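Document type: protein sequence-to-structure record

Subject area: structural biology

Format: plain text, a pair of labelled lines:
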Amino acid sequence: MTELLKANKIDQQKPKRPGILKVMQSILAGAIGVQSDKRREEDFSSHSPWPYIIAGILFTVSFVVGLIVIVNLVLASQ
């Protein structure tokens, strides 16, 4: 019985890989600056920073491309 409890504690201490939805929520919350301390701690305790880095780069590129498209559409309509 105690071995089961020890194994359960070890599993709870291991950082889990974040899901795609959690990464997207963190990126969007970070982009507008409203991320809670609890979520930030969860993000920094995750297994690897690469999902957040890749998602952040993709978000930034898509945001800039979106702004360029909107500006070109507005300028073309004048």
